[in-house]
Known about the structure:
elongated, mainly alpha
Amino acid sequence: MREFDYVVRFDWPVFSFAAGAMLLVGLGFGLLPAVRASRTNLRGAMRAGARGATLDRASRRLLGSFVVAELAIAAALLIASLAAAQYFRKLANEPWGFSTERRTASIVAFADRLFTTPAAKQRSIEGILTQLRAIRGVVTATVTGPSPMNAQRDLMSCTPEGVQTT
């Protein structure tokens, strides 16, 4: 993974949906055939002459269709998970649009209660940037808000130097 990528995290809504779907499918395909089998006339099934008395043709067809549907759902889930894994791999290898080599980023939060005025906060930030720029090997240092890696696209504003907005 690249240095700017997000950490993989546990997503509760996705997990809840998957667990609910698994529970629903498991109960539907497991409980319904069990209920149908419990209605079978066992006394008639035990007779020597009643070979086919356990299930009639419609019941066998219904249970067979359950097996086919369960296999189709399993195949669809397998294909979807493979497609999602390939998409994630492709996304992780996608270029950012700018070079990330020999660059570092850090998140620093300045508590407003530590500064008496916004100008004092601005002077402090400028002092930190001056110290960072003085380090050997540092070409440039800058402050952004919000962070380009964490902000939504519609919240980012970019005004190139020399361009005036009205």
